[in-house]
Amino acid sequence: FDHDKVLVIFVLGGPGAGKGTQCAKLVQEFGFSHLSAGDLLRAEQHREGSQYGDLIRQNIKEGKIVPSEVTVKLLQNAIAAELEKHKDKTEHGWGEGKGRFLVDGFPRQMDQAHIFDETVCQSKFVLFYTTTEEVMLERLLERGKTSGREDDNVESIKKRFKTFVETSMPVVDYYRQHDKVVEVLKGVQITEVIHLPSTLKEFPM
Ligand code: UP5
Ligand code: MG
């Protein structure tokens, strides 16, 4: 696909910060395609014949980062598939090879940021959701009762928090230095759609 025609916004935040929930709202409002790196990895883990199943399962359970090549490849394939699927769409700046994507839960390690910038495209900006670990823990344990996610248990959650602080926060700080971070502070209501910069609505593509 033509990398100049792809608009990407990274959606970051700790485990359970509400990335997926907020992305679903932004999809409805602004016509984005939502790509959750975690969802793509879980789908690949369960795909028959995947050579990465065990690798992904182990890392997710331990709250560690799956090797970047795997995730970047999955994201690239997903972007290409979405562009193909929506090639006749014209609303919200789609069509003629153009598309807009919320990339949720990625990049979460510095090398991923560089690989994506160089091989896919530069993100327009980063939406960063924050709340306390206490709130996130409570949400994830609640979700764990029905989610079936192998990492929604106390042991895995604690490891995910640690990885987030040590490995993923430096990515947020890196984008902060480039003035790319829009921070959405704790207290955002689940029913509320956060206000995006107005430029997004009329993105010139
Ligand atoms: N909820 C949400 N917002 C709420 C609100 N405002 N008030 C009250 N409740 C709210 O929300 C979590 C729960 O909280 C839900 O039940 C929701 O209803 C409620 P959700 O929107 O799902 O939060 P989200 O931030 O998406 O949480 P998630 O658990 O998905 O975040 P993680 O970052 O931990 O998970 P992800 O799927 O991105 O990654 C999982 C693992 O995959 C990683 O740990 C890692 O091992 C691996 N991974 C990689 O290796 N590389 C990658 O690039 C990406 C992932
Ligand atoms: Mg999520």
From TrEMBL:
Binding, a ribonucleoside 5'-phosphate: 42, 64-66, 105-108, 112, 149, 160
Organism name: Serendipita vermifera MAFF 305830
One GO term describing the cellular component: cytoplasm
Task of the protein: Catalyzes the phosphorylation of pyrimidine nucleoside monophosphates at the expense of ATP. Plays an important role in de novo pyrimidine nucleotide biosynthesis. Has preference for UMP and dUMP as phosphate acceptors, but can also use CMP, dCMP and AMP.
Record protein name field: Uridylate kinase
Region annotated NMPbind, chain positions: 36-66
Region (LID): 142-152
Record bears the keyword Nucleus: yes
Reported cofactor(s): Mg(2+)
